[in-house]
Amino acid sequence: MRREDRESDEEVQVNPYFRQKQDRVGRPGFSYHQKVIVALRMMAYASLADLMDETHGMSESTCLDTLEQFRDTIVQVYKDEYLREPNQEYLNRLIRKAEDYGFSGMIGSLDCMHWDWKNCLTGWQ
After folding, report:
1. 15 with 9: CB under 8 angstroms?
2. Quick one: pLDDT band at residue 34, thresholds 50, 70, 90?
3. Are the beta carbons of 75 and 83 closer than 8 angstroms?
């Protein structure tokens, strides 16, 4: 069985919200994939929840619930390994690496918007 056909991903195992359920008249509700796609699209494109109704048939409130559940699940699953405060050793390594590339003082300004970029599009300057 293909991975796409299973709902055994970590998010589904951690949060039953992502399991496909039936609505009150017995029709299948939104699948795991539909919910995750909506959450990812909302985050990636800063899409409004009410716009998802047109493309995915998901109401605004369901989109917002899905986004919130997705966020909470990702934090719960990955916080210990990936979502942690940087320690001093890690910060020192980042600072050294940034200085090697000519970006001294980048910590605290990770977007580097204060730098002049010679190849920057004129609309952004």
Report:
1. no
2. very high
3. yes
